[in-house]
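So, read this over?
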Amino acid sequence: MDHIIFNTVVPHVFSSLTSNLSSEIWNTELAFDKEKLYLVEADSGKGKSTFCSYIQGYRHDYSGNIFFDSRSTKELSIQDWTLIRKQHISLLFQELRLFPELTSFENVQIKNQLTNFKSKSEIVAWFEQLGIADKIDTPIKLMSFGQQQRVAMMRALVQPFDFILVDEPISHLDESNSQIMGALLLEESRRQGAGVIVTSIGKHMELSYDKILRL
């Protein structure tokens, strides 16, 4: 997958406001390209997480079309979406969606087992890089939200992908840890030749974005 294309997409909840929408994404024609870095900025309630859900196929309550290259996502079957989420598009959820009873390592490994994309030593090296190696066997429920965000980032990276979406990834991190997590994101996405889409309602990773868009 080389492109994600939005063609006059408007969430149903905004359908009555179409003529007054001030957005660089909704109700426009826009392409996100592989190997490019994007920042999507939005005020609360403007549809940031909805935007991510549309790309991942979790929600379909919109008019217009989204294309993966030349294929409309409206044509995709459940099996197609399963493959896309497993091999082509990864997502770091804003609310993280980690398993509280599992350890931090188990939360990463449970996804890695779907493709065996990374070795245990590679995952452990990420824990060290992110400064939470001492938490590798700690249940998620006993970790701070900032520590959990780092675990969620690793889980998002532990698969093959052409695009990765990271929804508010550093809301509970200080500047130093934000920079470290941003470096890890760029390192892995560049290794895979992937496109990166970061969303933010304010605080965001300080990266060299190819394009900044207002939702």
User: Anything to note?
Assistant: The first strand starts at residue 3 and ends at 11.
